[in-house]
Amino acid sequence: MISIQKDDIDIGALIQQSRNTHMGAQVVFVGTVRDDGIEAIEFEADRTTAIADLTTIAAEATEKHGLISVDIIHRDGLLQTGETILVIIAGSAHREEGFAGCRYIIEEIKRYVPIWKKDITASGDSRWHD
Amino acid sequence: MRITIRSFARFREIFGTEKLIETDSFASPKTVLSLLCKEKECRDTLFTPDGTLHPHITITLNGRRLSTGETDETTLADGDTLVIYPPVSGG
């Protein structure tokens, strides 16, 4: 599944849906909102292009690292500290491919997928990340 | 001809979500973006002092990312859509 959504992600259900009997490993990356003296982060995405980019990245990770399945769900909207931002599940026959594929996916997302975040402080100040 | 310019995140707060620019035929993306910027602060957001687009800015034309050379050399057509992205920060 590739998705950008406002709703929270049921990570347990996603792991179960993604699993099949050809896999010996599922590597799961969960990105969360860290409290760096902020209250929340507002995420904004160009959803159409971001979904296309995530689909491309999933296909590349599958090709380069021999993954069996890839799930990427990124949230947008206002997320409080501690909330889930992103879940990546890389399913593979063995752990090495899963770790490498998952790492490839998160680094590519950070490199070019059109998603932005703005820190929101308790006083209401805000600042976009560059 | 008419070109639509869409912006996101920090750029949306400066340029607005969507603007329609009227320009002559044969304009390049860079030319149209310069028409978007009348005030100096606005120009400085997109352009370096020597008039080139900042390298960290991504421009798409009808959904396709343009290289630096393409922003100067591509000829736009009536109805095209340019999108300007600030540096991304997802994940």
From TrEMBL, chain A:
Q: Which terms under GO biological process does the entry name?
A: Mo-molybdopterin cofactor biosynthetic process
Q: Name one Pfam family in it.
A: MoaE
The protein's name in its UniProt record: Molybdenum cofactor biosynthesis protein MoaE
From TrEMBL, chain B:
CDD domains assigned: Ubl_MoaD_like (cd17040)
Protein name (record): MoaD/ThiS family protein
Q: Which InterPro entries match?
A: Beta-grasp_dom_sf (IPR012675), Mopterin_synth/thiamin_S_b (IPR016155), Sulfur_Carrier/Prot_Modifier (IPR052045), ThiS/MoaD-like (IPR003749)
* TM regions (residue ranges): none
What PANTHER family is this protein classified in?
Answer: SULFUR CARRIER PROTEIN CYSO, SULFUR CARRIER PROTEIN SLR0821-RELATED
Q: Which organism is it from?
A: Methanogenium marinum
User: Which Pfam families does the entry mention?
Assistant: ThiS (PF02597)
